[in-house]
Every structure is written in structure tokens, then in C-alpha cells.
Amino acid sequence: MLYSEINPGLAAHGGEIKLVELTEEQYAILAFGGGCQGCAAVDLTLKDGVEKTLMERIPELAGIRDVTDHTDTTNAYYR
């Protein structure tokens, strides 16, 4: 779902998201890259876009955690 539905939308801003791990507690550990890493709008993207979509489509998922270092704004779409 990340790669077929969510990443194409993020690609419009040069961004991407990767699944790092799925924990035993059913949390998806995600890392943003490209234009999403360090982007000023990443919290909105994570909560209102990625998390909402994944939680609706995968009922077993307990939540989302972002492990991205957002202090690196080199390629950020919005600064």
C-alpha cells in the first residue's frame, strides 16, 4: 500500500516513505526520504495522510511511528 498508493502522491513533491519495521505490537515504523525528509508539512502528511490511510485500510495496525531525522532539510519540499 505504501509503494502503490501513498508513494505516488509523495513523489509529486520528490518524496517517499519506506517501511522500516513492523513491530510485534503492530506499529509500522516508517522513514521519510527525499522532499519529505525535513519538510515543514511532514506532520500533516503523516497524521492526515499516511496514518489515516493505513489505519483505515489495515485494521490490525496499532499505529505509526516516524523515525526520520527531520533536522536534515537539504531536500525538503517546504522549509
Estimated helix fraction: 25-40%
Give the percentage of residues in beta strands. Answer: 25-35%
CATH level 4 superfamily: Fe-S cluster assembly (FSCA)
Biggest sheet strand order reads: 1-2-3
Q: Indicate the mean pLDDT.
A: 94
Radius of gyration: 12 Å
User: What's the domain count?
Assistant: 1
The succession of helices and strands, N to C, reads HEEHE
- CATH fold title: GMP Synthetase, Chain A, domain 3
Approximate shape: globular
Overall number of strands = 3
- Distance between the amino and carboxyl termini: 27 Å
Major sheet attributes: 3 strands, mixed
Q: Give the helix tally.
A: 2
* CATH C-level category: Alpha Beta
What CATH architecture would you give? 2-Layer Sandwich
Structural class label:
alpha+beta
Low-confidence stretches: none
Organism: Vreelandella olivaria
InterPro entries: FSCA_dom_sf, NIF_FeS_clus_asmbl_NifU_C
Protein name: NIF system FeS cluster assembly NifU C-terminal domain-containing protein
Domain NIF system FeS cluster assembly NifU C-terminal: 2-62
Description:
- InterPro entries: FSCA_dom_sf, NIF_FeS_clus_asmbl_NifU_C.
- It comes from Vreelandella olivaria.
- By secondary structure, the protein is α+β, with helices and mostly antiparallel strands.
- It has a single domain, classed as GMP Synthetase, Chain A, domain 3 (2-Layer Sandwich).
- Helix content is 33%, strand content 25%.
- A 3-stranded mixed sheet has the order 1-2-3, covered by helices on one side.
- Strand 1 and strand 2 form a beta hairpin.
- The protein starts with a helix and ends in a 13-residue tail after the last strand.
- 20% of the residues are buried.
